[in-house]
Amino acid sequence: MSPRRIGVMGGTFDPIHHGHLVAASEVQARFHLDEVIFVPTGQPWQKADRVVSKAEDRYLMTVIATASNPVFSVSRVDIDRGGQTFTIDTLRDLQTEYPDDELFFITGADALEQILTWRDADELFKYAHFIGVTRPGYHLDDHHLPRGKVSLVEVTAMAISSTGCRERVRAAEPVWYLVPDGVVRYIDKRRLYKDPSP
Ligand code: ATP
Ligand code: MG
């Protein structure tokens, strides 16, 4: 069997929104990926300054958002490992799970720029090809990234962020159509983002 091409979309997904889904779908089509695995983080060290929703809530919202797409799935590797998530650990675990397949790590341009500050940055490129998603007009300075290991893809502008969604819920403004319907319901049911952070 020829190696499958597997996209890996890491994120806090607090909450998952249509920007994430459009980016994953666009990359899946353009890179002919057989599957895209969404991987919600454990407690993310990049966001130590704010309270992140429980892993189980972020996991379930990601499942709800991706359930109807036959080539989208969700992995618990980062949540079940526990502690802070480092991308190198995510890729090592998925490589173990899919030893014969090719991994494509999908990340926003903002995160890609920080890539060399990540732990074991050089090693990351041994495990996966990196795909940086940019928005039209966004200039990414890529001269310091290793040649042939990173591709940049421009995705139709989607000015949606999880931060924006949380602020809207806090302010009792609607998030309909920014996140999938089931995620709107789930946020409401679990009263996420309503109360001030402790
Ligand atoms: P926050 O506002 O809390 O930082 P976020 O919207 O950036 O959240 P993350 O879970 O941090 O969401 O993002 C996961 C990945 O998706 C990151 O690589 C990020 O760059 C990318 N991403 C986030 N929003 C968009 C968007 N609107 N379009 C394309 N990619 C996005
Ligand atoms: Mg972000």
UniProtKB/TrEMBL annotation:
Catalytic activity: nicotinate beta-D-ribonucleotide + ATP + H(+) = deamido-NAD(+) + diphosphate
Pathway(s) this gene product operates in, as recorded in its UniProt entry: Cofactor biosynthesis; NAD(+) biosynthesis; deamido-NAD(+) from nicotinate D-ribonucleotide: step 1/1
Keywords: ATP-binding, NAD, Nucleotide-binding, Nucleotidyltransferase, Pyridine nucleotide biosynthesis, Transferase
One Pfam family of this chain: CTP_transf_like
E.C. no: 2.7.7.18
GO molecular function: nicotinate-nucleotide adenylyltransferase activity
Entry-linked CDD domains: NMNAT
Family matches, as SUPFAM superfamilies: Nucleotidylyl transferase (SSF52374)
Taxonomic superkingdom: Bacteria
Listed InterPro entries: Cyt_trans-like, NadD/NMNAT, Rossmann-like_a/b/a_fold
Function recorded in the entry: Catalyzes the reversible adenylation of nicotinate mononucleotide (NaMN) to nicotinic acid adenine dinucleotide (NaAD).
Protein family per UniProt: Belongs to the NadD family.
Protein name per the record: Probable nicotinate-nucleotide adenylyltransferase
Organism: Prauserella endophytica
Gene name as annotated: nadD
